[in-house]
Amino acid sequence: MTDVPARFDAFRIHDDAAGYRSGIEQLSIDDQSPGEVVVRAAYSSVNYKDALAGTGKGKILRRAPLVGGIDVAGHVVASTDPRFKEGDAVLATGSGLSETRDGGYAQYVRLPAQWTIPLPQGLTLRESMILGTAGFTAALALLRMVENRQTPDLGPLAVTGATGGVGSLAVDIFSRAGFQVHAISGKSGPAADFLRSLGASDVLGRDALSTTRPMDTARFGGGLDNVGGTMLAALLAQTAPYGNVASAGLAATPDLHATVMPFIIRGVSLLGVASAGTARDIREEVWRRLANEWRPAHLDRICTREVGLDGLPGVFDTMLAGDSFGRTLVSIAPESR
Question: What pTM, to 2 d.p., does this model score?
Answer without folding.
Answer: 0.95
